[in-house]
């Protein structure tokens, strides 16, 4: 038996299992989703090592004990680690898919519940708008306009404990607007402590101009662009409790337009 090659085989197994364990704890859903592919990759890698060893002369034709040990190790690891079988489900690999389905359904229900709450709060703000603006004086300048807008948006954001930054865009020309948006994105980066590579600022501006929403970090941080008739704003929304998503961005944009309508 070629002891050196067997040690090499064991080291490769340990590395593969270490990467798999890290994936399992770091991205459990991805691990479950791609488990079949991980198993196929493991079998392919293991058999490839055996064939390479045979081709390079590390394994002789008479080393059936070594070959059997290596192949047995591959099968054992698959059953003991990747399938994690129990007495009732040893021959039923479908439980992996059931686990993924249950997890997906739980997340879907949670998402639907969040969206429902956000819709209820958005409608509440709209219904309250008539009373809110009835006693409001018209803002005298841009700074007062922005301050009043922040106060209005807080009726939505505060319920979900979102942190928010609002910046008015200078849209006197297209060039000034685009440059101003890039500058504001840089300030948002400092505020959120989430790095945005400089070369992406122009791409992000184009995304905001076209789609009105920029997802910086899923469930954590989004930027909305509200383009009004008289005033345009970039609004950064950061989660401080409930996950933040595109629904929030669209509602914030709608509230900005509602605010502008009341102010004109």
TrEMBL record:
Transmembrane segments: 6-26, 42-59, 65-83
A Pfam family recorded for this sequence: SpoIISA_toxin
InterPro entries given in the database record: SpoIISA_toxin (IPR025940)
UniProt keyword terms in alphabetical order: Membrane, Transmembrane, Transmembrane helix
One GO term describing the cellular component: membrane
Protein name: Type II toxin-antitoxin system SpoIISA family toxin
Species the sequence originates in: Gottfriedia endophytica
């Amino acid at each position: 038996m070629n002891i050196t090659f067997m040690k090499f085989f064991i080291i490769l197994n340990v590395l593969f299992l270490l990467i798999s364990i890290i994936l399992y704890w770091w991205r459990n859903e991805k691990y479950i989703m791609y488990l079949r592919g991980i198993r196929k990759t493991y079998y392919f890698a293991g058999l490839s090592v055996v064939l390479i060893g045979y081709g390079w002369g590390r394994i002789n034709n008479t080393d059936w004990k070594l070959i059997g040990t290596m192949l047995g190790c591959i099968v054992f690891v698959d059953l003991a680690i990747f399938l994690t079988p129990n007495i009732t489900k040893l021959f039923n690999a479908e439980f992996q898919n059931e686990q993924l389905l249950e997890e997906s359904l739980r997340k879907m229900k949670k998402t639907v519940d969040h969206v429902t709450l956000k819709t209820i709060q958005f409608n509440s703000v709209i219904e309250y708008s008539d009373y809110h603006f009835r006693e409001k004086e018209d803002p005298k300048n841009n700074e007062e306009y922005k301050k009043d807008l922040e106060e209005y948006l807080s009726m939505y954001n505060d319920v979900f404990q979102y942190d928010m930054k609002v910046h008015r865009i200078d849209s006197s020309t297209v060039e000034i607007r685009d440059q101003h948006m890039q500058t504001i994105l840089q300030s948002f980066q400092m505020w959120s402590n989430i790095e945005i590579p400089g070369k992406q600022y122009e791409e992000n501006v184009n995304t905001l101009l076209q789609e009105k929403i920029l997802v910086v970090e899923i469930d954590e941080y989004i930027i909305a662009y509200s383009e009004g008739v008289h005033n345009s704003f970039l609004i950064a929304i950061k989660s401080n409790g409930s996950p933040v998503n595109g629904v929030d961005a669209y509602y914030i944009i709608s509230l900005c337009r509602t605010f502008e309508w009341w102010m004109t």
